[in-house]
Amino acid sequence: MEALIAYARPLAQGAVVTVGLAVLSLALATLLGGLGAYGRLGGGRFGAWLVFIYTTIVRGIPDLVVILLVYFGGQRLVNTLAAALGAEAGFQVSPFVAGTVSIGFIYGAYLTETFRGAYMTIPRGQIEAAQALGLRPAPLLLTVTLPQLVRAALPGYANVFQVLVKSTAVVSVIGLADMVGIANSAGKSVREPFAFFVAVMLFYLLLTWASTTIFETLERRYARGFANAR
Description:
Helix content is about 85%, strand content about 0%. By secondary structure, the protein is mostly helical. The chain has a single domain (about 1-230), classed as MetI-like (MetI-like fold, Orthogonal Bundle), CATH 1.10.3720. The longest helix has about 35 residues, at about 195-230. It is flat and about 70 Å long. The N and C termini lie far apart (about 55 Å).
């Protein structure tokens, strides 16, 4: 316990890094998932094919492999391009940036299917009726499609975020000073790894509990609003 107290500040800083990594990765995954769902549903044959390749490949590769590819491969790619342009090489990819891009890219594939499935649950007749009433694409999206899409996608979206949060722990292997990385270093230095990883376990349990509570509240609110609208 004394060792944990001594490292309380670094652990707290690592916890902030972990939360920031999870939130930014989720934002990127949401963007990619939305674009991917649009490509599958309205991007034509070529767009649907590209998204299918993306989701199939990403979901078949371990998270750690993608993170290592982005971190080391990204550095090599940028330095190769810099050398080809006559610029000075030696560019370093930040572990935080590499982790955010990797996790966002991975879970964008899962959210693509989540959003596509949610859109498929919307009755086609509602969209056609709104179009017959003269609703333009933007008002139709905001008043008819999006509210129902959010309601249908929230359970799957919450599940994806739960898995995404746990994946942030893997980023410590490329040197990110997150909760896991700091706990690992501190535990080795004071020879008390068990105490530090118990603290990490409790932190992740707290984080997943808080996110579950937030998403369940949102699900109830959207379900209540949908029932009132009917």
